[in-house]
């Protein structure tokens, strides 16, 4: 997949938008030519100035929730302490948001874990609780999500009002719906949901698994390379 994404980034501006900490995502992907939006888009950074993939005059860096960092660190410590009695629960600090994973928690304990998390958050009205795929997400109450991050990237790249630019957003989580909705409302580009099962979604299309995503990206690269070869002959 990394090889395919690297080729994709040579053809199109490419971003990874994740709920995880931006540094963690970068250390996993290790492709300097990409744009990274971590913490559900609250920590955005583009390729360094001078990179072939950098279409702007300087590296993009945007962190709309910086003022919440001390509070998030404080809540992280409390959640670790509060949830340690629940086997399988894992609290992850994603810098600008927190994740409480319950994939490895006995289903009978899910409700109890949720109450533990809520008991901590009741003293922090500036943080909100949402749920993803077997994960509870704690984020600042600012109006920012993956959809807002997508809009910011389009603006930063100068693509927001372009009629010849077609954004494609691929995601498999409930939190990706914000980005799908942005594209649908704008009438620009489309979203692709990755799921083996039918779901209500704002995405226009779906793929069933990562292998299909990789095949789709590979075909995009092939189409772009063919277009460039055709243009060079004209």
Automatic annotation (TrEMBL):
Pfam families: Trehalose_PPase (PF02358). It is an enzyme of class 3 (hydrolase). Its EC number is 3.1.3.12. GO terms for biological process: trehalose biosynthetic process. Pathway: Glycan biosynthesis; trehalose biosynthesis. Transmembrane segments: none annotated. One of its GO terms (molecular function) is trehalose-phosphatase activity. It comes from the Eukaryota. InterPro entries: HAD-like_sf, HAD-SF_hydro_IIB, HAD_sf, OTSB-like, Trehalose_PPase. Its cofactor is a divalent metal cation. Gene3D superfamilies: HAD superfamily/HAD-like, Trehalose-6-phosphate phosphatase related protein, domain 2. Removes the phosphate from trehalose 6-phosphate to produce free trehalose. Trehalose accumulation in plant may improve abiotic stress tolerance. Belongs to the trehalose phosphatase family. This is Trehalose 6-phosphate phosphatase. The lineage of its organism: Eukaryota, Viridiplantae, Streptophyta, Embryophyta, Tracheophyta.
